[in-house]
């Protein structure tokens, strides 16, 4: 797949304060999650790729063209910012419509597009009320509406699920996945890691102004060598099972959880360990209830790379 | 039972916020969920002793919710969702001040404030002015002031809001530690279901002023017998074919997760025999359950 | 031998239902006020008139000794209720009291509104009354120190310097007037400042408003009086209203021929307005959003 957004040695600082340092990324169509601690450089990154600020060093290109001050490219991008800043006296409808005007659509198109966007985020029945009367969830949905109304190819969402109740979150996640299957490029920045996991496996982890990890969560996990994998097995006789592989040198530790009737195994070689298991279960008649990998998730990856 | 209320009704003028709520909350951590406008805040206001119900009554911590509201507030801790602090104070002064207002003697309040600030991880910044605090620190401070007077019931409103992944993880750990003590009740209101699943064993889902579901999460989530989620490696096609031959129904999600429905006469352990013979590794094997999210959607009735 | 348990520990004490649950609020408010720059300077300045008047009493008693220095008529230093009235209602003192309000009252409630801390207060066993009482007590503390205390001290020192109870016998109601007027002016200014402090989230606006409303009301009076010469315009000026009521309480002649009752009503009206506004602005129930 051709990457849509490419950054080369992107660096930005504000006086003495570091924003981003030497970031070279290729972002492809589909959903990419951006995560990182506060102050890591995520917002700087998003501002740079949407052309809102100018980099000190490096370039950002979208489909091969430089983004900065390239107005034609702006119509390809939809941005849903984290902060709320609305004209409180406008109605929801007017807000979306007036932003659409900036794209030089005809009046009829504006009406159609605004209707469609508001319908997608389920604000149709509140579209004629002033924004001042909107609840937090409604404001959030309005922000998403203005980001998608002009049907951009690239959609960038900064904390899009903030303030939404579980159903609202679900709907927006579904919407994002739909756009992804239509071939659009979507970047989602969020602190709530389980939600990124619900949307995508591709992530970019930014920390201290640099990219600490990029790619599929599971592959990244594999690459983190300093932390052996943890595997949890819930079965009928954990101790007996453990005794069968405890002599293998790739089994680093075994921990018994008597409450749960399970054991936690630390291993540096998952392949060998997993290959070992099914025959053991069969031969020694061990009844298995559950096998999971507790640290094969985004929070663990984050903790290993960023944590103290 | 630290919270027992019956038939609570409440209206703001013509708008009915709570329409007959019965609650019997057990010990431990309880999640309070519901769409916006379901009546959560109203219920909390009544439980914390700020509002009197139009109809119905009950007790919180053995104090009557209609007649002993001030007492309830003495033994309850509240961690608000929004930012709130008092300028011109450092963390120790702030926490002990609020402890005093709860009824602690001054010296005790100061002593306890230090303890509690150590506990929430603010020991190094406890003499700094609050204006200099970051978002994560402010959140921990809010937790500290909620527990300084050693309440028997703590209410946490969106405790992880605005925090970065590290902050979230730390606050959730603190919450789990507090709720593991058998004599404090923790009530958490949050929209982030994974957080609730991690910390709570019991949930109340409110919808349109009534509880749409309440109970232990493990009871509410149905275990779908004979439906298993799996991830495998090596000899995939062969493995799946054997399963299909044995009359299992196989589905695959886009994430390469397998959902396998095993006919009732087939022993699930057979799967391992098949894997062993076919040299397939089984890396993930879990009995499928409805997720909390699905439960929520089902119970709130909208999709 | 034991090891301290890791993790959350309980507090073994008991929460007491104190008689003054609002006391920490007052204590903190006073501390915060003293931290402000220049406050001590203004506070000291407010006590200056008391010092001057005290010296005056001393001088009047030792008039013989000072006769050589003082050639004006001794009537100037005649200590009578009028002397007290002129202490309590002098422009400078009232003005300085307003400055104290600016320092102590600027952020009193407006900070709580701005930083959302009402949630923290009202999730405690604190009634609205306690909250207001605690906040008001900060102002009452400072104001009484510059009115009641000096007033009583002047009275007592008069008795001490004159060496007899004659003064007390002549004007037995004077201590009551001192106490009464002190409380009246303190109550009025407290309500006034609390009212304004609850109107805005910005402590600077509040400070400016406290100061300028007082000054402006007097200027307004001056303008209208200058044009129309009617004494009824004196009801516009907060300062003059206080002075009129003061004159009545100390049994002196009023400066403007308007009954002191009207002045009192104006002052009381402000207090009532404050009461309603505060009730409306501070809603305990909004603790949970």
Descriptive account of the structure:
The complex is a heterotrimer of chains A (308), B (303) and C (289). Chain A is 36% helix and 28% strand. Chain A contains eleven helices and 14 strands. In chain A, a hairpin with a 2-residue loop joins β1 (5-14) and β2 (17-27). The longest helix of chain A is centred in the middle third of the chain and has 16 residues, at 166-181. In chain A, 42% of the residues are buried. Chain B is built from eleven helices and 14 strands. In chain B, the strands form three sheets. Chain B has a six-stranded mixed β-sheet with strand order 6-7-8-3-9-10. A four-stranded antiparallel β-sheet of chain B has the order 2-1-4-5. Chain C has 289 residues and is mainly α. Chain C is built from 13 helices and no strands. Classes of the chains: A alpha/beta (308), B alpha/beta (303), C mainly alpha (289). Chain A binds chain B through residues 35-38, 135-137, 162-170, 191-195, 201, 270-271, 274-275, 277-279, 281-282, 287-293, 299, 302-303, 306-307, and chain B through 33-37, 134-136, 160-169, 191-194, 233, 255, 269, 272-273, 275-276, 279-287, 293, 296-297, 300, 302-303.
């Amino acid at each position: 797949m051709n990457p849509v957004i490419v950054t080369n040695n992107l660096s930005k600082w504000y006086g003495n304060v570091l924003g981003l340092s030497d970031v070279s990324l290729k972002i492809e169509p589909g959903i990419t999650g951006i995560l990182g601690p506060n102050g890591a450089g995520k917002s700087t990154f998003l501002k740079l790729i949407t052309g809102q600020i100018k980099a000190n060093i490096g370039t950002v290109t979208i489909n091969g063209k430089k983004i900065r001050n390239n107005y034609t490219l702006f119509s390809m991008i939809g941005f849903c910012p984290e902060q709320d800043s609305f004209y409180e006296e406008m109605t929801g409808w007017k807000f979306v419509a007036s932003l659409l005007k900036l794209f030089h659509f005809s009046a009829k198109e504006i009406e159609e597009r605004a209707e469609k966007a508001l319908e997608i985020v389920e604000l149709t029945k509140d579209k004629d009320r002033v924004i001042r009367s909107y609840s937090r969830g409604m404001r959030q949905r309005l922000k998403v509406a203005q980001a998608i109304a002009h049907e951009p190819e690239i959609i960038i969402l900064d904390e899009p699920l903030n303030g939404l109740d579980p159903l609202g979150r679900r709907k927006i996640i579904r919407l994002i996945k739909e756009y992804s299957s239509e071939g659009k490029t979507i970047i989602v920045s969020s602190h709530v890691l389980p939600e990124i996991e619900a949307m995508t496996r591709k992530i970019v982890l930014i920390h201290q102004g640099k990219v600490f990890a990029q790619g599929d969560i599971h592959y990244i996990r594999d690459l983190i060598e300093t932390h052996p994998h943890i595997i949890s097995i819930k079965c009928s006789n954990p101790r007996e099972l453990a005794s069968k592989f405890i002599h293998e040198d790739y089994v680093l530790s075994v921990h018994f959880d008597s409450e749960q009737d399970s054991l936690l195994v630390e291993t540096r070689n998952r392949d060998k360990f997993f290959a070992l298991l099914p025959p053991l279960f069969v031969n020694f008649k061990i009844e298995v209830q559950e096998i999971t990998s507790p640290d094969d998730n985004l929070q663990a990856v984050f903790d290993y790379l960023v944590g103290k | 039972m630290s919270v027992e209320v019956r038939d609570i009704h409440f209206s703001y003028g013509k708008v009915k916020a709570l329409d007959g709520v019965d609650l019997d909350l057990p010990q431990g951590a309880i999640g309070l969920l519901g769409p916006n406008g379901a009546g959560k805040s109203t219920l909390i206001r009544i439980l914390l002793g700020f509002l009197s119900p139009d109809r119905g009554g009950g007790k919180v911590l053995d104090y009557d919710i209609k007649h002993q509201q001030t007492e309830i507030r003495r033994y309850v801790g509240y961690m608000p969702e929004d930012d709130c602090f008092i300028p011109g104070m450092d963390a120790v002064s702030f926490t002990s001040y609020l402890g005093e207002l709860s009824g602690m003697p001054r010296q005790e309040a100061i002593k306890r404030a230090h303890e509690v600030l150590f506990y929430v991880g603010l020991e190094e910044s406890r003499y700094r002015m609050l204006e200099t605090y970051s978002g994560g620190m402010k959140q921990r401070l809010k937790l500290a002031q909620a527990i300084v007077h050693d309440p028997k019931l703590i209410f946490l409103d969106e405790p992880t809001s605005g925090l970065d992944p590290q902050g979230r993880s730390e606050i959730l750990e603190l919450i789990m530690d507090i709720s593991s003590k058998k004599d404090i009740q923790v009530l958490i209101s949050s929209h982030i279901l994974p957080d609730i699943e991690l910390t709570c064993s019991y949930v109340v889902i409110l919808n349109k002023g009534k509880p749409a579901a309440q109970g232990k999460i493990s009871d509410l989530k149905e275990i779908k017998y004979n439906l298993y989620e799996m991830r495998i490696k090596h000899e995939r096609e062969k493995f799946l074919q054997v399963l299909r031959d044995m009359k299992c129904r196989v589905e695959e999600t886009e994430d390469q997760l397998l959902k396998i429905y095993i006919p009732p006469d087939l022993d699930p352990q057979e799967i391992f025999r098949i894997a062993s013979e076919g040299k397939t590794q089984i890396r993930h094997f879990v009995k499928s359950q409805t997720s909390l999210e699905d439960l929520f959607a089902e119970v709130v009735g909208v999709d | 031998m034991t090891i301290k348990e890791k993790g959350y520990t309980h507090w073994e004490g008991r929460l007491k239902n104190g008689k003054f649950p609002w006391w920490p609020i007052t204590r903190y408010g006073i501390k915060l006020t003293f931290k402000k720059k220049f406050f001590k300077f203004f506070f000291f300045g407010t006590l200056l008139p008391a010092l001057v008047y005290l010296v005056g009493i001393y001088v009047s008693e030792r008039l013989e000794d000072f006769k050589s220095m003082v050639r004006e008529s001794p009537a100037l230093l005649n200590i009578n209720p009028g002397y007290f009235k002129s202490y309590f209602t002098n422009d400078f003192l009232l003005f300085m009291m307003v400055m104290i309000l600016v320092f102590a009252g600027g952020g009193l409630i407006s900070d709580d509104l701005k930083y959302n801390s009402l949630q923290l207060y009202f999730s405690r066993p604190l009634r609205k009354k306690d909250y207001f009482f605690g906040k008001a007590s900060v102002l009452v503390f400072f104001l009484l120190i510059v009115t009641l205390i000096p007033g009583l001290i002047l009275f007592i020192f008069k008795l001490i310097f004159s060496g007899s109870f004659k003064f007390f016998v002549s004007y037995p109601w004077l201590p009551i007037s001192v106490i009464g007027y002190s409380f009246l002016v303190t109550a009025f200014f407290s309500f006034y400042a609390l009212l304004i402090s609850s109107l805005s989230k910005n402590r600077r606006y509040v400070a400016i408003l406290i100061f300028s409303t007082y000054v402006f009301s007097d200027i307004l009076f001056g303008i209208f009086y200058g044009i129309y010469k009617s004494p009824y315009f004196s009801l516009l000026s907060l300062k003059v209203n206080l002075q009129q009521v003061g004159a009545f309480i100390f049994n002196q002649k009023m400066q403007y021929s308007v009954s002191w009752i009207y002045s009192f009503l104006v002052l009381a009206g402000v207090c009532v307005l404050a009461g309603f506004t505060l009730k409306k602005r501070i809603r305990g129930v909004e603790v949970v959003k």
